Amino acid sequence: MLIQKTLKANDTLLQDISDYCKKISHSNHVTAISVFENCRAEQTGANGTIEVILVIRDFQPRLMSHVSALHGRNIVTFVVDQWVFERDIERGFLGEASVGTLVFPHTVLEGNHYLHGQEILLKKRLILELLENLAIGFPKLAERIRIKPEYFMYEAMLSRVRVFPPLAFCAPHLLEPESRYSETLKSYWEALKQLETEKQLVLSDNFITIPKKFILKSNNHRIRLVNISKNAPRRIFTPVFELFPQLLNFFTKSMEKGVGLQKLMLKDKNAETTYLVDPQEYVLIPTANGFVSLADRIGIDEFARKVLLNDKEGDIFVKPIGGAINDVYLVEAVTSGQKNRVLVKRFRDWSGIKWFPLYIWALGARSFAVLGRSRLEREIAISERLRKEGFNVPRILHVSHSQRLIFMEYLEGENLSNDLKRIAAASSKEKVEKELAAIGKVGETLAQVHSLGVALGDTKPENVITDATGKIYLLDFEQASESGDKAWDVAEFLYYSGHFLSPLRGNGNAELVGSALIQGYLRGGGDPEVIRKAGAPKYTRVFSIFTMPSVIRTLSKACRDVGNPN
Questions:
Q1: Residue 204: enclosing H or E segment and its boundaries?
Q2: 349 and 215 together in one domain
Q3: Are 102 and 193 within one domain?
Q4: Between β-strands 464-466 and 472-474, what pairing exists: parallel, antiparallel or unpaired?
Q5: Distance of alpha carbon 349 from its chain centroid, rounded?
Q6: Rounded to whole angstroms, what are the CA distances from 49 to 35, 76, 101, 170?
Q7: 93 and 199 share a domain?
Q8: Residue-level pLDDT at 203
Q9: What is the pTM of this model?
Q10: Is 566 inside any structural domain?
Q11: Contact 185, 169 (CB under 8 A)
Q12: Beta bridge partners of 33
């Protein structure tokens, strides 16, 4: 329990607060007294309000407030029945309005053992709620993120500020170095270790990870509705509890210094910007170069100068290279005759007319991730998983989540669509053996990815690159998922490939492409039923708008005939 220094120094004031509380209680049993210094002199220009929580057993009425002045300080005492207090700890009965000061550094005047136990119970519940929020907000990435304990501490504090913004002005603890929180952080560690024992989370190397079972449970629709509903009591009760202490502080400051209401804002255009800790700084996501904070805000130019140029003098060239739905850039940094390249994707939201045609195009066959943040999350999660499983994918070098930017390795190689064009122009199979072998490798790789339970979601030939050694690289995982449609992956590759093939030469080339992909898929251990499903009309109709009907029929028949003895 962190004792507030200014209060501890004034033992007489603390004793008088304790005596005052016992006077309020009359003959009732005092369970606990907690003191929170709402504003110190350096924040208000005067001695700020002291907020006291007085817990009394069998208190009637259940809630009451008292206002007094002691030693020139405003004292606001909230008297709460022990049963109500414990229900607020246990399930947020009052939206944590009667227990919220326990998440800030505070002073315990009575009932230290009792309040410590209740504080741990409160923090265990808050930690689980915050883990649920992360699991819901990052369903594809949650299992791979790493969380520092500081996240829970700062997020618990700032959640109260979000509900009642004036707290940002009068809660100095939010604005000070984290060294001040060593004792507060210890209580979170205690809560985390208890939750680990209960198998609610995993603690490893001072990081918290979210178990898959917890993530699946959190994304249950009923649980999500319950989670959303938890904010309602906070929004109702917290402002009511905090309004009067903050008004006292405001009017005290206004009278003494003539400061207007705008000073209660987090930023004032004529004043220095106040820095509040961003809790997302302590939530980390994986990249090939290690973990990156969700709070990272690096832009393209800054990344190029810091990482590619290593803060040395040089030239930076940013070249747009396409992307109908995302912005894609090739970034080159040139210094001392050396050239470093990265590929950058900026994930935009699809909205209104932009994605409606895509939805109509694939209606009944598959659904698409629409939100930019959701697609970025999938890209990171699936790319990192495949990379760790040994698949050839471009390394993710950095992520700027707030800017929706992913910086990834630039690959030298040839797009597979060029192989298909050569197959389309070939007069015989012998002239395109190399190209057909590459398609066979794609089939093998696709089957191996599917064996992990992963569907890629966007398997156009353009999303496959072959390097000079013939190695196959997979690209673009923003529509990938661990519960997706594997048959769509096969269908999209085949039927999209088909629009490169002209039926004027007959459908022999389509048969070659279909056979190469299917044989490779089966050779890689793929399920024949996935191939057969890819021949279904619900897939063929989607691609009929840009692939000739005879080519689609040829490829569809090749899929349906897998395993057919005839």
A1: strand 202-204
A2: no
A3: yes
A4: antiparallel
A5: 16
A6: 11, 7, 13, 9
A7: yes
A8: 94
A9: 0.78
A10: no
A11: no
A12: 54, 110
Boundaries of domain holding 398:
286-409
Given a cut of 70, is residue 350 above it in pLDDT?
no
Measured distance CA(423)–CA(361) in Å, rounded: 28
pLDDT at residue 53 in the model: 93
- Looking at the predicted structure, is the pLDDT value of residue 387 above 80? yes
Distance CA 298, CA 149 (A): 24
Are 65 and 10 in the same domain? yes
**Max alpha carbon distance in the chain (Å)?**
102
- Per-residue pLDDT of 421-457, as tens digits, reads 999 888 778 888 999 999 999 999 999 999 999 999 9
Question: Would 61 be classed as within a structural domain?
Answer: yes
Q: Which amino acid is at 405?
A: L
Phi and psi, residue 31, nearest 5°: -85, -40
Structure token digits, residue 506: 């007959």
Q: What is the token pair recorded at 13?
A: 């004031």
Least confident range from 49-58, 178-187, 349-358: namely 349-358
Q: Say yes or no: 128 and 202 in one domain.
A: yes
Distance CA 181, CA 472 (A): 50
If pLDDT is split at 50, 70 and 90, which confidence band does 366 have? low
Nearest to 51 by CA among 247, 330, 260, 261: 247
3-state secondary structure of 316: strand
The C-alpha atoms of residue 144 and residue 138 are separated, in whole angstroms, by 10
Distances (CA, A) of 348 to 2, 137, 230, 246, 371: 45, 17, 31, 41, 7
Are both 26 and 47 inside the same structural domain? yes
Peptide bond preceding 565 in cis form (omega within 30 of 0) = no
Q: Does 115 reside within a domain?
A: yes
- Do residues 346 and 431 share a domain? no
**How is residue 306 annotated by DSSP?**
I
Give the burial class of 506: count Cβ atoms within 10 A of its Cβ; 0-12 exposed, 13-18 middle, 19 or more buried. exposed
3-state helix/strand/coil string of 189-239: HHHHHHHHHCCCCEEECCEEECCHHHHHHHCCHHHHHHHHHCHHHHHHHHH
Q: Which of 209-213, 214-218, 261-265 has the lowest mean pLDDT?
A: 261-265
Same domain? 56 vs 172: yes
Cα pseudo-dihedral 245, 191, 63, 233, rounded to 10? 80
**The token pair that represents 98 in the structure block:** 């009667």
Decide: residue 225, CB within 10 A, 0-12 exposed, 13-18 middle, 19+ buried: exposed
Task: Count other C-beta atoms under 10 Å from residue 390's C-beta.
Answer: 8
Which sign does the torsion angle of CA 52, 57, 62, 67 carry?
negative
**Average pLDDT of the residues in 332-356:** 76
Asked whether 446 and 531 are in contact (CB, 8 A), the reply is no
The tokens for 431 are 């002239």
- The one-character DSSP state at 377 is H
Number of domains in the chain: 3
CATH number at residue 387: 3.30.200
Determine the length of the chain. Answer: 566
Domain boundary at 388, 409, 430, which?
409
Contact 238, 164 (CB under 8 A): yes
**To the nearest 10°, the Cα dihedral for 401, 403, 405, 407?**
-80
Q: What pLDDT is stored for residue 11 in this prediction?
A: 80
